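Can anyone check this?
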Amino acid sequence: MKQIPLAIGPEPVFTFDNFLPGANAVALAQLEALRPGMVVGAGVPPVFVWGRPGCGKTHLLKALAESWQAAGLQVGWYDADTPLPWELPSQPSLLLLDDCERFDAGQQHAAFALFVEAASYGLTLVATGSAPPVDLDLREDLRTRLGWGPTYELLPLSEEEMRAALHLEAGRRGIQVSDDVIDYLLTRFARDLKQLMRLLTRLDEFAMSTKRAVTVPLLRQMLADEGMNG
């Protein structure tokens, strides 16, 4: 009988320090410049960050939220998995809208209402999407407001940068991952860093449950057990 691993591995950590910028130094600098507690004032536009899945948009939002919460400030975070109704915290400082293209009609209505309320408080607002606001399939009033301020495209990491990110996460987890394992992941799966990190997490848990080292044969066995092509 295979052991079921307990969730004892370290939870993913999302900070500005462990975000590999690659060609995205400008976007990173813009978000880092949003100092915890700053009040932008009425009439100051939001920041919008866009890019294909896995390029690091959610990582940057979580890093931003972490830095503000570490300063004792309340952050409002809303994505397609956040159940309605959406309401700002009692003493909000920062409003974050992640993966706006996934919002359904009700969530779009709620996001627009939050946008208006945040503007009245002068809150800092940052949103993300898979494309520039003008190209998102959203209600017009929300799309217009999302595209009102500076917009930054996040470009995917190069292969070497992606390798470095996977090795960095493996080291944080305290597991030895050879170049052969990284090669296997990069040649057989889409180069979506978010999905690759999830695979690495599952591989770590599988290695613990089987009490085996992380190797390509172990990765193949895990994928076979999950019904995935390996």
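Reply from J.R.: I decoded it. The chain is about 45% helix and 10% strand.
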